[in-house]
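chain and backbone:
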Amino acid sequence: MFVLTNAWHALGRHRAYSILTVILALVMSFDAIVSSAVSAKSTAAHGTEYQSQQPTAVIRPGAKLQSQLKGDDAKATTEHYLTFTDYSPIAVNAQSKSISFTYSFAETVPVRQSDSLKAIPGSADESADKTGGELLMRSFYDAKAVKTNDFGAFKLVKGKNLKYTDTKFTGALISKELAEKNNLSVGSKFTVANPTDASKKYTYTVQGIYEYTDPATGTTYKLAKQNPNNVIYTAYATAYTNGLDPEKSPKGTWAMPNLDITFMFDSPDAYDSFAKIAKKNMPKGCELSSPSLEAYNKKLEPLDGTASWMRIALIVMLAVGGVLLVIITIMRTWVTRRDEIGMALVTGVTKPRLAWQFILETLMLTVVPVALGLLIGGFTAKPIGNALCGFETPMSGSIVGSMIWDSLGAIVVLAIVAMFGPVVFRNRNLFKPATVGSEEKA
């Protein structure tokens, strides 16, 4: 009890050092546990969470081939369109290697505008005879195909989704901008014409009105049909009923739909295996990519960036803070208290007892602040991670356990440093006169 009381009073006599130690211990422990949570989330996102992804894969024109496709040259463009026959070798070879996958698809054709549906103009439009039309009609086989829409993700602001299996369904989705331009609403009817035969018309009902949540292109377009807001989304069953099918349309004309198949896998490993096979059977100029994995990795960029700078900040904090704590402890227990140590020894206090007192002082200054920093950091790591990078970074038992043991190790080191103050004190210094500004070591 005597040692504990002395330790408590000593902290008050060296208040500046005590306050600095408490602040550093609190801040360092808080920073360590929050940084560890963010880092652990980043690691998991690239590890177990990445492996739990169900990737999609598409085969589309590469940059070089894409630059050769022209919206006003049907022959030069549609000859590069893929058909089911082009995809077949890839699918067959993958199945022969026991690679499990499912698939969906979408097809796209230009259609001509009408009095009931005028397209948003382009900056340098050509005649519909050259472009096939001012609008694009994209038909989805099912809801899965919507997820890889290269015009961008969209959401309905009015109306209902498409019906994919009803061959008599004539509903379509149009953009908010197109609806406003033509004064259309849900339930309105509009007509478009065939890309190569203007006399052949198709009538649709506005099933829903959409807007893009993540548009994939810019804001100015040479041709009207290149504007994503001029895209009409329908069900493949509807397009098939109207005869707009890649197996029924000759290449070289805009009536030939652009077929886009989406492959879906149970794991990234299955996708990687499929990619190896696909590259060997890839149509010339085309490239394989995974829109879902690309979107997933893009989503992780804020998390990875935050985890990176927090790791650096933590290293700096621990290095600088650790050195400061050691220096403060030495100043508090060695340099400024030589007279106190000497007086205690003269009055009969033993070195072990003084060492124990200094250890208690260090524990008082570190245990509670460290525990408080870990506690606050543990409860706030999740919302802090969400605020910094848009990801919740929940605390786990392994992180807490690791932080506790690391903190205890650091506290023990500081306690040992403090203990050496009286232990290394030389008894002969008791009889030396004090000198102003003396740098003599105790």
In short: The two ends are 27 Å apart (CA to CA). The first strand starts at residue 56 and ends at 61.
